[in-house]
What we know:
Number of domains: 1
Radius of gyration: 13 Å
CATH topology: Rossmann fold
Shape: globular
Structural class: alpha/beta
Number of strands: 5
Strand content: 15-25%
Order of helices and strands: EHEEHHEHEH
Strand order of the largest sheet: 2-1-3-4-5
Helix content: 40-55%
CATH architecture: 3-Layer(aba) Sandwich
Amino acid sequence: MKIVFFSVTGNVRRFVKDLADFSSLEITQTNPFIEVNQPFVFIAPAYEKEVTEIAWDFMETGNNAQYCCGIIGSGNLNFSDLYIYTAKDLARDFDIPLLDDFEAFGTAKERERIKEKIYACTESNQES
Length: 128
């Protein structure tokens, strides 16, 4: 399973790097219009819409939204109701399951839990 993500401060990049079991693709402000023609999980940090617009650009490119089997949110629990709101908005707008979340760059326990969810997506896509 491929992980597609974007990272503003480096926390998501660090989290993904620690998920070495999976290949990854980082989208950037300069080129969010990449087509991923295979199942993937998308990891999104929580920032203002102007910063996260690249996630919508990416999902609207080609068949990306159809290939996305789940979204994982990253955020800061200090922001209460705004915690992982970008991931929640993407999941709602594109009707994609919100699989899980982690804070900052994630703990070892969060990484293991999220790895299991990504493996479950992999198995479910192999059965389809």
